[in-house]
Fold this sequence. Notes:
The protein is α+β, with helices and mostly antiparallel strands. The protein is 25% helix and 42% strand. The chain has 2 helices and 5 strands.
Amino acid sequence: IELIGEELGNGHSVKIIGLGTFEAGEIKARTFINTQTGEFIKVKRCFIPKFRAGKWLKEKVNEQI
């Protein structure tokens, strides 16, 4: 888990065959308006982890249906 976190932090993706792929997705910087106060709120750019399930995992989950 530590290695996956480090690799995502370096901008790389991690693929575990059958299980899936971990990637870092970017959320762009943006500005919101607080409708109650009218104040502008700035949100910094950040990255979030994303996971796409692999074929084996998808099949395993749907096996019991």
